[in-house]
Amino acid sequence: MRIERRDFLALKPGRRAELSCERLYMRFLDSQSEGTTAQLFDQLAADLRGTAVVQLTQTAWLSRAELRARLDDVLAGFKAAGGRVA
């Protein structure tokens, strides 16, 4: 399965990214049924490596604990590498 970043991550000029938490939630549900959840978050982490700032949108969709925990892990790595979450 190929995970399409445009499903939930929009890259902006100036090494910025906008992450739609609603779209990520939907892909997260799909990944659970397909058994590709680890791949989804590995790909998200890889996609964020080329950005300096990520802005989360529609964060109310992060109410599910497992989704939030996996995203927090990705964002912790992103911040440790010098990235900033807006």
In summary, what is this structure?
With 86 residues, the chain is α/β, with parallel strands linked by helices.
How would the blueprint of this fold be written?
Blueprint: E1 9-12, E2 16-20, H1 21-34, H2 37-48, E3 53-57, H3 65-80, E4 84-85
Parallel strand pairs: 2-3, 3-4
Antiparallel strand pairs: 1-2
Helix pairs in contact: 1-2, 2-3
Walk me through the structure:
It is built from three helices and four strands; from the N terminus they run E-E-H-H-E-H-E. The chain has about 90 residues and is of the alpha/beta class. The protein has a four-stranded mixed sheet with strand order 1-2-3-4. The longest helix has 16 residues, at about 65-80. The radius of gyration is 12 Å and the shape is globular. The mean pLDDT is about 90.
